[in-house]
Design brief:
It is built from nine helices and twelve strands. With 312 residues, it is of the alpha/beta class. It binds glutamic acid. Glutamic acid (GLU) binds at residues 11-13, 45, 175, 189, 193.
Length: 312
Amino acid sequence: MVNAGYVGRFAPSPTGRLHMGSMLSAVASWCDARHAGGTWYVRMEDLDPPREVAGAAGDILETLEAFGLQWDGPVMYQSKRHEAYAEALAQLLEQGRAYGCACTRKLLEGAAVYPGYCRSGLGAGQVPRSYRHAMASETYGWDDAVQGNQAFDAKDLGDFVIKRADGHWAYQLAVVVDDVAQGINAVVRGADLLDSTPRQIALRHALAPDAPAVSWSHLPILVNADGQKLSKQTLAAPVEADEAPAILVTCLSLLGQPCAREEGVLDMAKSGDVTGILAVAARGWELGRVPAAPIHWQGSGQGPGKKRPSDD
Ligand code: GLU
């Protein structure tokens, strides 16, 4: 089915090289966009300098190219988008959907959800440290193409930070401003971001109520033997460009795509034909086959690894 109106993206944070978990998002979002005949953007989410690693952004782009994951248009860099975020904050403040918060980390210690201390205004002499989005008391739900029906109650989420006390823009604000600016209407990413989605839906309602609806798909996360999510913190091994063909086939297998077992595809992996593998993958891509449950991943990024559902 061709849906030229489809606009998707891959939005890595340059906090290190791509690992198998991030590769899964890149491959799935690329296949979903190409299967639809749509657009696939890459957006570099470089708005958190304290966590960034020098050279990581360039390395990520080179890795995507080595894997044959070609993007459309120029790469958007969040580090160049401060004005757009400032405008969004001003709009939310004017709408009464954002407020300055003077609470310190120490004051909020132990609170899972922000208790709303600054919601009705700051006391005399207090100055805002951060800014928060004032959530409407609603339930935010969507039908996730991989994880099924989701519903989050605003009171379990609380008013979240949109501009941090250290002066940096928060991911939640930037991602919504940019998804709207780029006309994104399909988000395919890891399920570790599942509870970010209701916050992003809420911000979207406030900032751009007329923006196109988004179809959300949250991929299974990869976990190590201890059940921890594969991440830079758990020292996930980076994917190596010279293993791209085998890694692509592994990704497709983890994503439940039957083409990962096709002889023709395995031959292409042997001959190093990443473009050929991706063409077959995009043609036969079925989001409905992607498993929902976390996947135990013992591999280093190379070879098939070991796959089993989390609850066995
Ligand atoms: N930059 C985020 C990350 O690397 C992903 C953002 C998104 O896909 O919405 O975790």
